[in-house]
Design brief:
Length: about 200
């Protein structure tokens, strides 16, 4: 079993928080409709091209361009995913295991959920055991263990939008299709992934 990860600040201390968790700013409310108009993470104001570092050890499960978040990296450890958004560039690969403090990208201002003159890092934590995005996000407390963290979690199969397979789940949660063997191994009693079936998702190591 992994130790509870301690949350490390993803940027140098010289870069200050421009918008805190839960803040409401008229100029950005439109971007957070799914969160009741409240800010879903912490924004660090910083010029483009500065190093962004991993806030806890984990596996890279997202490395992509998102319409709102721009270039975004997602790192999972247990039931917690950290998102690093609006990046100008990547320094890691999908499926890579990273440690706390490792460089993962460069700050930028990509994606629609930005302001022209405010380059920044949007940092967000999600507890992926929760049923909705609004419930998933929670306030980061840097320098402290993540109290919401669990080493493993239970996922309930829902095939309505996408048919779930062992390989699909491995790619989503382990960043590697071949990880299906690990997920299947801790759920060996299951033969088929039917709607409503509950399975245990193991951690990345």
């Amino acid at each position: 079993m992994q130790k509870v990860p301690v949350l490390v600040r993803p940027v140098d201390s010289k870069f200050k928080v421009w918008q805190g968790f839960g803040d409401i700013r008229p100029e950005t409310t439109w971007a957070y409709a799914e969160f009741g108009g409240q800010h879903s993470g912490v924004d660090f104001y910083m010029p483009a091209g500065n190093e962004v570092r991993c806030s806890f050890e984990g596996v890279v499960v997202r490395r992509e361009f998102h319409k709102g978040m721009g270039n975004v990296v997602g790192v999972r450890n247990g039931n917690i995913v950290a998102l690093y958004a609006h990046l100008s560039g990547f320094k890691i690969n999908f499926g890579e295991i990273v440690g706390a403090g490792d460089p993962i990208g460069l700050s930028g201002n990509t994606g629609a959920a930005t302001l022209p003159d405010v380059p920044h890092l949007h940092f967000e934590l999600r507890n992926i055991t929760k049923p909705s995005l609004k419930e998933m996000v929670f306030e980061p407390v840097f320098g402290k263990p993540i109290k919401q963290w669990r080493d493993t979690f239970t996922y309930q199969i829902n095939n309505q939008n996408t048919v779930k397979t062992w390989r699909f789940l491995a790619l989503r949660y382990l960043g590697d299709e071949d990880g299906w063997i690990k997920i299947k191994g801790v759920n060996s009693q299951l033969k088929k992934l039917k709607d409503g079936t509950k399975i245990v998702i193991p951690n990345y190591v």
